[in-house]
Amino acid sequence: MKKWMYLIAPTAMLGVFLFFYIAESKEAELKEQSRAAELAKSKAQEAEKKRVAEEKARLDSAKRAAERSAEEAKRETDKIAKREAESKRIQDETEKYLADTAAQTKKVSDLELQLEAARKSKDQASREAFDLLKQVERAKVERRNAEIEIARLTEMLARRASDSSMTRMPPPPLPPTAK
After folding, report:
1. Cβ contact 167:161 at 8 Å
2. Taking the CB of the first residue and of the last residue of the chain, which one, N or C, has fewer CB atoms within 10 A?
3. Measured between alpha carbons, how far is 25 from 32 in angstroms, rounded to an integer?
4. CA–CA–CA angle 14, 16, 18 (5° rounding)
5. Residue 167 pLDDT > 80, yes or no?
6. How do residues 92-134 score in pLDDT, each as one tens digit?
């Protein structure tokens, strides 16, 4: 009987082990199934959250892209309007300065004509003054020449007169001779 004891005790223990094992394995299987269900449920929730977040992100992205394109379009129209305004301002200033330049050019040409006329008038006045001075000098020279000529003629007449017998005093009468 002792031999059977080696067989009966392990078998009984195996039976008790199998009883607890099967009970625990069913519980473990249920826990595993509930955990798998919870895991699937949480994955589904996370997938749903992810899908909602992606949808929201896509909508936000589309909204931002629309806002950005509207902003870029507005900036572009503002830039074009600003460029056109600047171009118009430059064109207006250019036309104003061209008109001003034309007026100043006309004024310069008028002043040059007046300057030329003034120079001619000055040259004419200088020439007339020089001619008058020349005439005055010539008159002074002629007067001096005339005075010299008169002095020479007077001296010549005086010399002739002094040399002439008519202008000589007759010799004093001789004293009467006593007779």
Report:
1. yes
2. C
3. 10
4. 65
5. no
6. 999 999 999 999 999 999 999 999 999 999 999 999 999 999 9
Q: CA 33, CA 39: separation in Å to the nearest integer?
A: 9
Cα end-to-end span (Å), the chain: 255
Q: Which residues contact 167 (CB under 8 A, 6 or more apart)?
A: 161
Q: Tokens for 91, please give them.
A: 């064109």
> Rounded to an integer, what distance in angstroms lies between the CA atom of residue 134 and that of residue 132?
5
CA distance 77 to 4: 103
pLDDT single digits (tens) 38-71: 999 999 999 999 999 999 999 999 999 999 999 9
Q: How far from 147 is each of 106, 136, 143, 155, CA to CA, in Å?
A: 60, 16, 6, 12
| DSSP letter for each residue of 92-160 | HHHHHHHHHHHHHHHHHHHHHHHHHHHHHHHHHHHHHHHHHHHHHHHHHHHHHHHHHHHHHHHHHHHHH
Residue that the structure tokens 């020349």 belong to: 134
Positive or negative torsion for Cα 14, 17, 19, 23: negative
Which residue is it, tokens 């509207």?
Answer: 70
